[in-house]
C-alpha cells in the first residue's frame, strides 16, 4: 500500500478547521500533500497523534513540538501566520467546542486512533514545569521563576546579546541594532524616573542587573536590584563588580513581598508584574506605594492582553503556562492602571510600545537561530525549541495587536497634591 498518512491527516485537519490546512504536510511514512510554496508541517512520529488524543488542543501540540515530534520546515513566522488565520480567536478551546457542537470531534478522534496505532503517549518532555501548592505563594513563585530563568546564563546570553536585557527594547528606527535599542530603553526609564545623583533606586525583578548598572553608571544613583532567580543574581553581582560599581549597586535574592527597607526615591518594575498574578496584584501595587517616597516615581513596564467581554473566562495559553512562564498572567492595561490608582498612585503617563516588542522578539529569534546548536548544548534541545516557538509566536501577537506592552509612569503624590512632574510631556525632570 502506498504511503498515505499525510493525506489522511490533512483530511482530518480540514474537518477540524472547516477549511483545508494552509501548509504542506509531510508524515512519518514519507507521504506529502498540500499546497506547494508554503512552509512544511512535518509530523515525524505517530507519538504526536497519541499526545493529541490524550490531551487534545494546545497541550498535546505543545508536548509534540517540544519533543520534536512535529516541526516546521521553512519560514516559521509564515507558518504560524497561516495557521492563525484559520484557527478561531479562542484557539484550541473554541475549536474543540465547535467540533463537539457539530459532531465532528468523535469522527476526528476515531481517525486519529486509526492513524496513531496502539499505545499510550510517552511522558511529557522534561522541560514541562511541575508545580505544587497554591499559585502565587512565595514558594511556588520561586519555583516558577527558577523554571524560566535558571536555565543557564550562557543560554540567555546567546539569545539576548551583550545587553542581557530581557524586556522590550526601544527602537528609534526599525533597522537599528538590538544593543542600541536596549540602551535607549534603559535610558528612557531613567529619564522618566528623573534619576539624579544621590538618589536610591529600587528595581523589582532586576534580571541580570542591566538597569541598575545603567542607572548607577550614567545617573549617579545608588541602586538596589531584587530577583528571586539565583542565577540572575550571581551574574548581576559579577557584572557590578566588573564595572566597579559594587559600592553603588546591591543585588538581592529577595521576593518583593519581603522588602521592608526604604523608602526609595524611585522604583522600576520592568517585565516583572506579569508574574504577580491577579490575586496578588492589588497587594503588589500597595507594596510599591509603601516603598517609594512621597513625590517619588514608579515606572511599571508590563505586557498587556486585550480585555474580554467576560473576564471570568480568561485562561492562560497552555503552552506558555507549562513551558514558558508557569503561573504567569496578563492583565488589560486599564486593570493595571486601576490597581495602581487604588493603591494610592497618581498615574501621569502611559506609553504603548507594542511595535517595539515585535522588533525585539524578532531580533531575539534571529540570535537564537544563529546559535541554535549551541543553545541546545547549553540547555536542552527541547528548551531551545520552546524559546524559538514562544518568541516567534509572541512577535506575531504584538504585530497583530492581540497583546501589547506599556510603560506606566506613576507618582506617589505629596499630601498637598505636589507631584514633582513637569508641566509638559517630553521633559521628565
Give the proportion of residues in helices.
Answer: 40-55%
Strand content: 15-25%
Task: List how many beta strands DSSP finds.
Answer: 11
Average residue-wise pLDDT: 92
CATH-defined topology of the largest domain? Rossmann fold
How many structural domains does the protein architecture include? 2
Name the shape in a single word: elongated
CATH level 1 name of the largest domain = Alpha Beta
Indicate the structural class.
alpha/beta
Query: Considering the protein shown, what is the CATH homologous superfamily of the largest domain?
Result: Vaccinia Virus protein VP39
What are the low-pLDDT stretches, counting only 5+ consecutive residues below 50? none
- Please compute the radius of gyration using only Cα atoms: 23 Å
Helix count, DSSP H or I runs of 4 or more residues:
17
In angstroms, what separates the terminal alpha carbons? 76 Å
Major β-sheet strand ordering: 7-6-5-8-9-11-10
Element string (H = helix, E = strand): HEEEHHEHHHHHHEHEHEEHEHHEHHHE
CATH architecture descriptor of the largest domain: 3-Layer(aba) Sandwich
Amino acid at each position: 500500500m502506498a504511503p498515505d498518512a499525510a493525506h489522511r491527516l490533512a483530511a482530518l485537519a480540514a474537518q477540524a478547521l472547516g477549511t483545508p490546512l494552509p501548509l504542506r504536510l509531510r508524515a512519518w511514512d514519507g507521504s506529502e500533500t498540500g499546497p506547494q510554496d508554503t512552509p512544511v508541517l512535518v509530523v515525524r512520529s505517530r507519538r504526536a497523534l497519541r499526545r493529541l488524543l490524550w490531551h487534545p488542543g494546545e497541550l498535546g501540540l505543545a508536548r509534540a513540538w517540544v519533543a520534536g515530534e512535529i516541526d516546521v520546515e521553512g519560514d516559521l513566522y509564515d507558518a504560524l501566520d497561516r495557521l492563525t488565520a484559520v484557527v478561531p480567536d479562542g484557539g484550541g478551546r473554541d475549536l474543540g467546542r465547535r467540533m463537539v457542537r457539530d459532531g465532528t470531534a468523535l469522527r476526528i478522534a476515531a481517525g486519529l486512533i486509526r492513524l496513531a496505532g496502539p499505545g499510550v503517549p510517552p511522558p511529557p518532555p522534561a522541560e514541562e514545569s511541575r508545580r505544587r501548592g497554591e499559585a502565587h505563594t512565595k514558594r511556588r513563585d520561586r519555583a516558577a521563576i527558577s523554571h524560566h530563568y535558571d536555565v543557564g546564563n550562557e543560554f540567555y546570553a546567546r539569545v539576548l546579546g551583550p545587553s542581557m536585557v530581557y524586556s522590550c527594547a526601544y527602537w528609534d528606527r526599525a533597522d537599528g541594532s538590538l544593543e542600541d535599542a536596549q540602551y535607549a530603553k534603559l535610558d528612557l526609564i531613567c529619564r522618566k524616573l528623573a534619576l539624579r545623583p544621590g538618589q536610591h533606586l529600587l528595581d523589582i525583578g532586576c534580571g541580570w542587573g542591566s538597569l541598575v548598572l545603567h542607572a548607577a553608571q550614567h545617573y549617579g544613583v545608588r541602586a538596589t536590584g531584587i530577583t528571586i532567580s539565583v542565577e540572575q543574581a550571581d551574574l548581576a553581582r559579577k557584572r557590578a563588580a566588573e564595572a566597579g560599581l559594587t559600592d553603588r549597586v546591591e543585588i538581592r535574592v529577595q521576593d518583593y513581598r519581603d522588602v521592608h527597607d526604604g523608602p526609595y526615591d524611585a522604583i522600576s518594575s520592568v517585565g516583572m508584574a506579569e508574574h504577580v498574578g491577579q490575586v496578588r496584584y492589588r497587594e503588589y501595587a500597595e507594596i510599591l506605594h509603601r516603598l517609594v517616597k512621597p513625590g517619588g516615581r514608579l515606572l511599571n513596564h508590563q505586557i498587556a492582553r486585550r480585555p474580554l467581554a467576560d473576564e471570568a473566562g480568561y485562561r492562560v495559553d497552555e503552552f506558555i503556562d507549562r513551558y514558558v512562564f508557569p503561573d504567569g498572567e496578563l492583565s488589560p492595561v486599564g486593570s493595571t492602571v486601576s490597581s495602581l490608582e487604588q493603591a494610592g498612585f497618581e498615574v501621569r503617563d502611559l506609553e504603548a510600545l507594542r511595535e517595539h516588542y515585535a522588533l525585539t522578539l524578532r531580533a531575539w529569534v534571529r540570535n537564537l537561530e544563529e546559535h541554535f546548536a549551541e543553545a541546545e548544548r547549553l540547555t536542552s534541545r527541547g528548551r531551545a525549541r520552546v524559546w524559538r516557538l514562544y518568541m516567534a509566536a509572541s512577535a506575531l501577537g504584538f504585530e497583530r495587536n492581540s497583546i501589547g506592552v506599556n510603560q506606566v509612569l506613576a507618582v506617589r503624590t505629596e499630601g498637598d497634591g505636589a507631584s514633582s512632574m513637569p508641566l509638559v510631556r517630553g521633559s521628565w525632570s
